[in-house]
Amino acid sequence: MSIEVDQEVFAEIEEYISHETVIIVGASDPRAAGYGLLQAARRFSFVAEDGREVSVEEAEYGDLYTPNYVSDIRLAPRGPWLYVDCKGYVPPAMGERMIAILVEELERVGVSGRIEVPSLDELNEYVPAMYLFHGLKFSVIPFP
Fold it and tell me: What is the number of other CB atoms lying within 10 angstroms of the CB of residue 98?
C-alpha cells in the first residue's frame, strides 16, 4: 500500500495564502478513498494551528485557530475531494498534521493513491458524495 503526497497539498501559494482543497487520485476503489477522506475530514476540524488535535471544547472555546469549516466529500472524475476553510491560509504545522491524518485514514481503509490539489475544473464539476457512498455499508467513527 502506497500513498504519495504532492508537495502543493495545504502548501502556501504566496505569503499567507494556501491551497485549501485536497483530492485523492489513482485509488483503485474511489468509494474506499472517499470513506478515508470522510474520516479524515471529521478530524480536520479539530486540528489547531500548532498541529495538535484538540478537544471539541478547545476547538470551540480555546485560543488556538482551527478550521472554520470542512466541506462534504465531493466526487470529481479523478476522485473524491474536499475543501477546508482556513480563511485562505493553512499554517504549516496544521497542514502537516492534516496530511498525516489523511494518510492514516487512507491506510486504515487500505487505499493506495496520490493526495493532490484538485484543478479548478474539478472544483466546478463534481457530484455530491451521496452518489459515492450509495449502497456502501460502513461504520462511522464518531467525532472526538
Answer: 25
Interval 30-48: pLDDT, tens: 889 999 999 999 999 999 9
Which CATH architecture is the domain 3-131 placed in? 2-Layer Sandwich (3.30)
User: What b/e sequence results for 46-71 when a residue is b if at least 16 CB atoms lie within 10 Å of its CB, and e otherwise?
Assistant: bbbbebebbeeeebeeeeebbbeebe
Closest CA to 39 of 129, 131, 119: 129
pTM of the model: 0.85
| Tens digit of each residue's pLDDT (9 = 90 or more) over 10-34 | 999 888 888 889 999 999 898 899 9
d(CA 125, CA 140): 27
